[in-house]
Design goal:
The chain has 149 residues and is α+β, with helices and mostly antiparallel strands. 44% of the residues lie in helices and 21% in strands. The strands form two sheets. Strands 1-2-3 form a three-stranded antiparallel beta sheet, with no helix packed on it. It has a three-stranded mixed beta sheet with strand order 5-4-6.
């Protein structure tokens, strides 16, 4: 493991913790070169999921791309990075438990939107505006009215 600060490969594990759900391991590491600490995560590499896009293309599922989309929606809200990571973990776990390795991008959007709706309404509206392709203020108004009911 290379240090992200000085690129030294003289690192050692100082602490190991298993996630609550047992899906990954968190390791605190200490660099022997620059003496800085950093965290790594270890998880089982899962089956390759394919995401079917609306234009019928397929691309490999990316946790980082999913996290990035969610992070844009939660900027300047009360949603924490821990909550975002939990959403990504839950969505990926649900997708992997399905019968198929190919999943429609709309399904991923629905799974994320449902979770954001429970956590933060503003983040949900932001996410929905992209996921559902809002084109004018009436689309926002219609979705806000649904939330208020």
């Amino acid at each position: 493991m290379h240090c992200p600060y000085c690129n030294s490969n003289d690192t050692e594990v100082s602490e190991t913790r298993v996630a609550e759900d047992g899906s990954n391991i968190r390791r605190r590491r200490l660099c022997g070169g620059c003496k800085k600490r950093f965290t790594t995560y270890e998880r089982v590499e899962n089956i390759m999921l394919l995401v079917k896009k609306k234009d019928s293309r397929s691309e490999r599922f990316s946790r980082d791309k999913l996290r990035g989309g969610i992070l844009k929606s939660v900027e300047k809200t009360t949603v924490t990075l821990e909550q975002v990571n939990k959403i990504v973990d839950e969505v990926e776990k649900e997708l992997l438990s399905a019968d198929s390795v190919e999943v429609d991008s709309k399904k991923i959007g629905r799974l994320v939107a449902a979770r954001l709706k429970k956590i933060d309404k503003i983040a949900y509206i932001r996410f929905a505006s992209v996921f559902q392709h809002f084109v004018d203020i009436e689309d926002f108004e219609r979705e806000v009215k649904k939330l208020l009911k």
